[in-house]
Amino acid sequence: MIDLLHNTSLNRDLVKEGFCQFKNDSFLNDSFYSDLESLVSDIKIIEDQLQPVGYYLSIMHGDPSLRNKINQLVLKYIDPMVDSMFTEASVLTSSIIIKPAHTGRFTTHMNWSCTERLDHSAFTLWIPLNDTTSANGTLKIFPRTHTFFNAPVPVNVHNQYFAEFTDYINTHDQYKPIDVKKGEVLCFDERIVHGSDINNTATPRVVLQVVVTHKPKETCFFFTKENSIESYEINREYFINHGVLDALMGFKNTRCISENELPIMSITKEEFIHKLSLAHQQ
Ligand SMILES: O=C(O)CCC(=O)C(=O)O
pTM of the full predicted structure? Predict the structure, then answer.
């Protein structure tokens, strides 16, 4: 089994289930949470930013100075935490997610691939500022789905792979909300099928989301164009300066590294069910 994490039982969960929960470690102290709270209190959400999705992401809606401040916070508290959690990993990017009261559904999706080699994985560390449950739209994860797609996930089609049978996934009894308390860290493979429902409480749900890559020094995003798939150079500075809007608008500010024939990127409901049964036999 590949060694991603120092903690062997969490490593087993991450490799097998595609996610794990750091519950009893005191990685994050009070000053981290008060610094995060003070950054969040400076964010003034403009109503238009919430359209059409209903949530705020600093990587999309914030400006470079805010993203730089978040990066400073991550450098101070999260980079050392990543070093003590992972055998070999580094932070690629971070974002504050705010789901205001009574809004903010994330459609079921996989995250964008950010590594050229498929055997070099990437993970999200999902760090809530307040306890999250199904009441305020905590993260929902479909365990063991992280190995279903053997091709990079491009930024422009990441939620289209199972568009034909999203209802089946959304109502599946294994696709479950995960309760995460303030002080805990949920870690999941970027390829896992996940999403979340709206925040049904009157209090905003706030999360620091940090993407880490295991091993690779070269990180990239993928984009599909007609019959080809292109990869573009990205790094920590790129996300601070340009956020993800540049990527969504066709990568004006970075370099194309490669262009290849488009791999097959869809899956049928039958294939999904088959892969799920194989994943449960292991
Ligand atoms: O915060 C959420 O509800 C969803 C976040 C998400 O999709 C992600 O971190 O990849």
Answer: 0.96
